[in-house]
Amino acid sequence: MRLLVLFILGAVLGGAIAALAINAQQQRSAYPRGVMAVLQNDLGRLRDIAKVQPCDATGSAALLQRLRNATQEIEPAMYPQDEVDPTFHRYAEKLRVTLDQSMTAPISDCLALSRNVAAIGEHCDNCHREFR
Ligand code: HEC
């Protein structure tokens, strides 16, 4: 009887600890996934804007700026405590440089916007291929 009680107690406690661990794990990855979701959303909207001619210049400028701001969070989100992997940092930096360059193109240049959207997407893929 005592053994059975101990066994049940152990099973319940073990389950509770496992649930806590999984929960903590999910919360830790919530922020990086959130940052990525913002990037995904804004890049998608930028892609849609680039498809329509003439493109919505003010909309694209605001989205580029937002994307650029969000990329600032990539490293802190993924490496809140540890040192940032240099290769990871390089990928994020390349994305930021491309975004900075995209913002210097005249906002009414829809063809440039299409090209820039493609280049931005490539930087996302490059990092994902190695780190995701
Ligand atoms: C420097 C590296 C890096 C760059 C640049 C990057 N990502 Fe990510 N991305 C990751 C990593 C790592 C994950 C996996 C995160 C996880 O599951 O915790 C990820 C995951 C994602 C996800 C899935 C999120 C989820 O809920 O599982 C999306 C969507 C995404 N990225 C979109 C983008 C877009 C769009 C861009 C470009 C504008 C981009 N990423 C640029 C590293 C990067």
SSE map:
Elements: H1 2-51, H2 57-71, H3 74-78, H4 86-104, H5 110-131
Bound molecules: heme C (HEC).
CATH architectural label: Up-down Bundle
Put simply, the count of helices is: 5
CATH hierarchy, class:
Mainly Alpha
Structural class: mainly alpha
Q: Termini distance?
A: 49 Å
From the spread of the alpha carbons, the general shape counts as elongated
CATH topology: Four Helix Bundle (Hemerythrin (Met), subunit A)
**Distinct small molecules bound, one entry per kind:** heme C
Stretches where pLDDT falls below 50 for ≥5 residues? none
Radius of gyration, in Å, reads 22 Å
Series of secondary-structure elements, N-terminal to C-terminal: HHHHH
Compute the number of structural domains: 1
Spell out the CATH superfamily: Cytochrome c/b562
Strand content: under 5%
Query: Tally of extended strands?
Result: 0
Helix content: over 70%
Overall pLDDT: 91
The largest β sheet comes out as: none
Notes on the structure:
This protein is mostly helical and 132 residues long. The chain has one domain (30-131): Cytochrome c/b562 (Four Helix Bundle (Hemerythrin (Met), subunit A)). Helices cover 84% and strands 0% of the residues. The protein has helices at residues 2-51, 57-71, 74-78, 86-104, 110-131. The structure holds heme C.
